[in-house]
Design a protein that fits this description.
Blueprint (H helix, E strand, L loop, with lengths): L3 H9 L7 E7 L6 H18 L7 H21 L8 E7 L4 E6 L6 E5 L5 H8 L4 E6 L3 E8 L2 E10 L6 E2 L5 E2 L11 H28 L4 E6 L4 H8 L2 H4 L2 E6 L6 H32 L5 E3 L1 H9 L3 E7 L6 E3 L6 E2 L13 E3 L2 H11 L3 E5 L11 E5 L3
Helix pairs in contact: 2-3, 5-6
This protein binds zinc ion (ZN).
């Protein structure tokens, strides 16, 4: 699970005299990423041997070489377990620092070795994904989870409140129904039980608020049985949380983890699809206005990107675009063989979309990957909301 604290730790990381390796490896099939990593490492070693600036001393270079071969072994061993991962990011230093991230979106592979970790691409890409807080409760028990990038993790275990289901009124007579809500008993006793339930749900709402803010969550999903639990819980939620409610589902806290995860994921996917639809509707509408601040399709988007006009780059996550890229100044084109800036020869790439993402990150633009098909957008594959034109 990637936590906000991990990122802070990474930001705070300034190795004491140790260079830091920042590796972004595009592992999207059919990328031959092991050999790509080899050539990136080879390139760096060449630089050390030919470069007279000597950024690293002899001992540092030796430690780096060892670290790079450890990374290489690690990546080789991962080869079969990268299901759904498109980008592997590793930050490591010779004195034992190691952080690894797996992302479902891609970037061109790159290896950076400096005294600071190269974090910007990671944070920009991570910002795209919502962190959900998921609370599953019934009238007595509650569990709280975090759902982020497909990982579902529980915090704090089962939270249990002592809510009576029946109340003894003497002579062995017990009143109260089978569930806490379904009472057949006296109204007064039913009310007593409901008071307990309300106190429980109030505590659940408070805990949820603490957890939500502490984990820097973006959205909330609530779950409970098909009775009054969810409407009652909603009433207890802080308005800050109610505004961030992404949806709800029916479940009980004692359900298997896999089942809860599946149901929470379905709610998250529905919410994300809805978000994508709104974004695309805005993009299409603006692009069709005369002088509207949006473009659609590869050529207009490339042009806007090269002119620094892009505010938000929108692209289908399965977009595979061919094009050319200038190795000197990162000029991108879908057909040019010669760079209009430096007149150098452009390199061919099968990953023009990933190059566009990298360029957008470089320009401080926002990125939105579209994960599902939408009739109005899929044929265009890319588009952008613009700052100006
Ligand atoms: Zn150039």
């Amino acid at each position: 699970m990637i936590t906000a604290q991990d990122i802070e730790r990474l930001h705070a990381w300034r190795a004491q005299g140790h260079p830091i390796v920042s590796l972004y490896l595009n592992v999207t099939p059919p990328h031959p990423f092991v050999s790509e990593l080899n050539s990136l490492i080879h390139y760096h070693k060449e630089q050390w041997n030919t470069n007279k600036t000597n950024a690293f001393d002899k001992a540092q270079r030796r430690a780096l070489e060892e670290l790079l071969s450890r990374i290489e072994h690690h990546v080789r061993a991962l080869e079969r377990q990268l299901d759904g991962t498109r980008l592997l990011a590793i930050f490591a230093s010779a004195d034992g620092f190691w952080q690894e991230y797996r992302l479902p979106v891609a970037l061109p592979s790159q290896l950076v070795i400096e005294f600071d970790p190269y974090i910007r691409p990671l944070t920009v890409l991570l910002n795209e994904f919502d962190r959900y807080c998921v609370v599953v409760t019934d009238a007595r028990k509650a569990r709280i989870f975090s759902l982020y990038l497909g990982e579902f993790e529980e915090y704090g275990g089962v939270f249990n409140d002592d809510v009576p289901s029946k109340i003894s009124v003497g002579r062995g007579v017990r009143l109260g129904g089978p569930g806490v809500w379904g009472g057949t008993g006296e109204l007064r006793i039913q009310r007593h039980i409901e008071d307990h339930v309300h106190r429980h749900l109030k505590r659940v709402a408070e805990r949820t608020f603490d957890f939500f803010t502490q984990k820097q969550s973006d959205l909330l999903i609530i779950a409970g049985p098909e009775d009054k639990t969810l409407p009652y819980l909603t009433n207890h939620l802080h308005s800050y949380l109610r505004e961030r409610l992404a949806g709800e589902f029916h479940a009980r806290p004692d359900m298997p983890l896999a089942e809860l995860k599946e149901r929470a994921l379905a709610v998250a996917r529905a919410w994300e699809r809805c978000y994508e639809e709104q974004l695309i509707a805005r993009l299409l509408e603006t692009a069709h206005q005369p002088k509207g601040l949006a473009v659609l399709g590869v050529e207009p988007t490339l042009e806007a990107l090269m002119l620094g006009q892009v505010h938000t780059l929108v692209l289908h996550n399965n977009a595979r675009l061919k094009g050319t890229v200038c190795p000197t100044d990162h000029f991108l084109s879908s057909y040019l063989e010669r760079c209009p800036i430096c007149q150098g020869t452009m390199h061919h790439t099968e990953d023009l979309a990933d190059e566009m993402v990298e360029e957008a990150i470089h320009q401080n633009a926002e990125i939105e990957h579209i994960f599902t098909d939408h009739d109005g957008f899929t044929p265009h594959a890319v588009g952008a909301l613009l700052r100006f034109r």
